[in-house]
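Record 1 of the preview.
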Amino acid sequence: MPATTATGSRTSRRSTRTSAPTRSSRPSSTTRTRGIKVFFDIITNHTADVIDYAEGQHTYVDKATEPYRDSSGQVFDDRTYAGGETFPALDAATSFPYTPVFASEADSTLKVPAWLNDPTNYHNRGDSTFAGESSTCSDFVGLDDLFTEQPDVVDGMVDIYEKWVEFGIDGFRIDTVKHVNMEFWQEFAPAMRAEAQRVGNDDFFAFGEVYDANPAYLSTFTTEGRLDATLDFGFRGAGTGFAKGAATTGLRDFYAGDDYYTDTDSNAYEIPTFLGNHDMGRIGMFLADGDRALERDRLAHSLMYLTRGQPVVYYGDEQGFTGDGETGLLAGTCSRAPWPPTTTTTCSAPTPPPPRPTSTPRTRSIAPSATSRVCDRRTPALADGAQLHRYASHDAGVFAFSRIDADERREFVVALNNATAPRTVTLGTEMKQGTFKQVWPASSASVRSDAEQRIQLTVPALSAVVWRAAGTLAEREQAPALHFEKPSAGGVVGGRAPIAVAVPDGGFNQVTLAWRPVGATDWTPLGTDDNAPYRVFHDVSGLAKGTLLEYRAVLRDSSGNFSVSSTHGVVGDPTTEPPPGGGGGGGPVTQPAAVSMPGSHNSEIQCPGDWMPDCEQAQMALDANDPGLEEDRDPARRRLRVQGGHRPVVGRELRSRGSPQRLEPRAGPVRRGPGDLLLRARLALDHHRRQRSDHHPRPAACSPSSAARATGHPTACAAGSRIPTPTAPTRSQPHRCRPAATRPR
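->
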């Protein structure tokens, strides 16, 4: 075969685009009128297995053993060109570890468009081991792996799929995303959105299949890689475990990882969630060997529909089909077997599916939750409202959370029980002495929260219950104070660093975080978080070590009030961030056994002096005599009010570990200092985070206009450069059944 060369400079192929398809050939208007959107399953990683190797071998050859060489024989590293405008010219006979050949002359012109027939547009390194370097540089089970580091290949793939966007497709499900270099996605994803906007499709949505369950890794494709979302393989694992009866703290810790997805235009609320697919098998297959399998199947789907994300139901799951994992792209009888399976069959060949009934126990259970969550305008919070953790158990039992729409400001409490017996729990809400009515399953039952904003619920076995607050969130006079936890003043930030703030007073808030180099004028937003722990991740790997950075947090509460806080850090080596729920402590949502209460009252409780956070008598512990807390294990509130007088007023039996009785001064009045009129100890205060009661300066509560301009000292609102006020990310969600303008995210 004669040598085939590629040009050494980038040449755009977009000037050769064909004319747009006619309107009559576009997706049927019937699907539009029925509210159906059409998504294409596409691939950019590989093409058909047409190219073979002259050597007759296919074992992967790494770059250390055999690097790439340009057409003149010079060694080069392709990674240094990825994302750029130029690439070395290549020779098919000498540039690759293997020599690409075609089995016949016909094969050499088989692919369309024609540039796909150029063998230098492929990696030609052998079959993937699906690990390390080979994950992005090798053939996918023999399928020809595109050299996506080359700018001409990037342009070619963009051109192909721009035509489908112009054709009228509503979005893409992109296969094998993890097997393509990140620089490719950084150009491809924005190009698809730009083309969609050009043709008037502002809701275009492209999500990738990244076969991994770690949110720290999955999220890199939406933050760094600029895709709209990735399939939530983590939910599939956590949801299946929950349905089988695992400890519900597993779900608590799983959702604590959602902060990894938060950036300026996307977050975890957009992630497509699923329980089964053509690669892994159906959820029914994973539950079929256990007890009460159909009820557990329903429970798993209830979890998917009632929690954050965009539910994806694999065809047949709504009928209760099981399968045996041999589904593949040509689903056979095993994948279509009705629930429960009655015979053992083989899946050697596809067969026609059995008639599908329009009403089965499975469809009757899934339809109401789907309708309530997705299309019922009375419950927008269940579609894309904020999700606030409320309760989890250390064994099979209740997992509970609230969902709140920022516009409606009405709380929904959702509780699911994966135990085989009813469970009664006490959990926190945002409502003080408010009424909640059960809305799903429909009922006339109601409960009322107490003065501590707690409600007691009984959840039936293997069931889900939704309660709706009768009123909206109470108006606040001022925003709660916030303070930075990471980085502390002068702390080190490295790699993909967590930037986190705490809000000791709790509430439903949105916190926007931003950064700038010290001495710069403009702030760069990092993202907005609407549930605790308030946290985003800042990738500082591109900044020189020793660079000084400022961080600013602006909080907007449920009433539109603002407060501000600041800190600074220095770029250094990354520290290990424990995975959500990792380690023996249970992750970032584990509550402390005690909190410190430093203040001018310390000497009155037998500490050696005042303002001593390490004093044993100042360590406050949960009161075992409070049955609500003993059941709860999670959210609860405690207040210690120190007033001018001979004894402090203690709320609901706060007690010191070192002095297990009500706090009382030894003698004389309590000495008061700045901030002592109201000291608050919040033990297990909020739904996601560890809280400290150390004394912190209170950031100023600012008006909306001043908060947007806040600079300088964290307790001041001064004129200066702008930082965006908290707003939700703006990428639209294709599942939404009401006008997008009514619910930006």
